[in-house]
Amino acid sequence: MTIYRDELEAILAKTATENKIVIIAVVNKAYVEGDKSMLDLFLDGFWHGDDTRGLRDHLLIVAVDQTAYERCMFLKLHCYKLETDGVDYDGEKLFMSGDFVKMMWRRTLFLGDVLKRGYNFIFTDTDVIWLRNPFPRLNPNETIDLQISTDVFYGDEWSESNKINTGFYMIRSNNKTIALFDNWYAKKDNSSGMKEQDVLEMLMHEGVFKGLGLRVRFLDTLFFSGFCQKSSDVSAVVTVHANCCRSISAKLTDLMDVIHHWKTFKNLPTNETLTIEWSKHLACINSWKF
Ligand SMILES: *[C@@H]1O[C@H](CO)[C@@H](O)[C@H](O)[C@H]1NC(C)=O
Ligand SMILES: *[C@@H]1O[C@H](CO)[C@@H](O)[C@H](O)[C@H]1NC(C)=O
Ligand SMILES: *[C@@H]1O[C@H](CO)[C@@H](O)[C@H](O)[C@H]1NC(C)=O
Ligand SMILES: *[C@@H]1O[C@H](CO)[C@@H](O)[C@H](O)[C@H]1NC(C)=O
Fold this sequence. Notes:
Number of helices: 9
Structural class: alpha/beta
CATH architecture: Alpha-Beta Complex
Strand content: 15-25%
Number of domains: 1
Bound molecules: 2-acetamido-2-deoxy-beta-D-glucopyranose
Strand order of the largest sheet: 3-2-1-4-7-6-8
CATH superfamily: Spore Coat Polysaccharide Biosynthesis Protein SpsA, Chain A
Shape: globular
CATH topology: Spore Coat Polysaccharide Biosynthesis Protein SpsA, Chain A
CATH class: Alpha Beta
Distance between the termini: 58 Å
Radius of gyration: 18 Å
Number of strands: 10
Order of helices and strands: HEHEHEHEEEEHHHEEEHH
Largest sheet: 7 strands, mixed
């Protein structure tokens, strides 16, 4: 019997693929409650997606409050309760509110810890719906340290001019990526008004990726799509992220529509699938109006 150092070590070992890859999503109370919660919808994606059901075995749900943890346990997923030294993370965190930013930094620290334990991972926000297994679209070459989704993809998968989005990325555990997370987290107290994604982007533009010798691939929105820049091809799309959206309720409305469109798409005879258009994600567009 293997003796694990702590609970995190044990759950990582249990959840990882044979290549030591874990799929990690972080949730709080606001993401697990309601008639249809974001977590429910996220899991619906794995159910309705192509070749995605088995991925659930490698999904680790990281709960930042007790309700989220209990909901995760109830769903019989792999769950880990992240201790957050007394901060209340259980409400809805509006984009860029103080708690939203704090929660993200706690998450960055945690993910750096996962890398230090030797695990590679795919980080996914729960407002990213997985419609296909992403592995065939992720480059398996181990010299690539980070493959990260983009809000806007400009056509060159190696160009730092793409607009990164930290809502979905795959990262390998090695000294370079660990150093990247250390650099990233070190900016926590000196980046007021910026969320961790902006800080990563800033590091990139300051030349930190190149300085550390990181090989970073930027993912094409044709496959890793979102509301900022929709994939033009339903038959190619792997994930849909409710980015460029302000509130949970708007995301839920529009992602439910995505799943609805996906099911329609799957039920069409092949010669008619090209007639499908994506949902217009109007709730998200309207979520920025006051
Ligand atoms: C991985 O990429 C490197 C750099 O482009 C290349 O030299 C190497 O042959 C690739 N490895 C495999 C297994 O494709
Ligand atoms: C990382 O660095 C340490 C010491 O600097 C070294 O012992 C170790 O082999 C390195 N690990 C990898 C994966 O390169
Ligand atoms: C914080 O950032 C400013 C401006 O980039 C820099 O001048 C200052 O040295 C930084 N402080 C710390 C503690 O890193
Ligand atoms: C698809 O095929 C069916 C049966 O052959 C045909 O009735 C239908 O018109 C075709 N649809 C398109 C858009 O070509």
